[in-house]
Amino acid sequence: QVCRGLQTPQVPVWLCSICSRHSVLFSTDSLLLSDWRRERVFHLYLYSGQREQGQTAHLTVDTHSHHWEEAPRVDPSSPGSRRPSLEMAIRTKWEGATVSWKGTEPFF
Known about the structure:
Blueprint: H1 4-7, E1 13-18, E2 21-26, E3 41-47, E4 57-62, H2 85-90, E5 98-100
Antiparallel strand pairs: 1-2, 2-3, 3-4, 4-5
């Protein structure tokens, strides 16, 4: 039997399976999912338990950024312009959001 705290977590938690790897994406802001104003700019943390991840990744998500504010790209299909799979997964919840990896090299 699952305890009540695991059935209803106090903070937003997403279990992710990206590229056949499991990870946990979470926020320490308990109001993130209940107050739409918190969804402007917020922080998410990613932990995968993989060897290549030395510490929990700290991501900043901006849901009100505009495509013209991003750096220009030459060709959207070129390997250098592709987005990490984790960013695409985040965009399934917050369409058009930009994700900053805060200096961490994207590993998903």
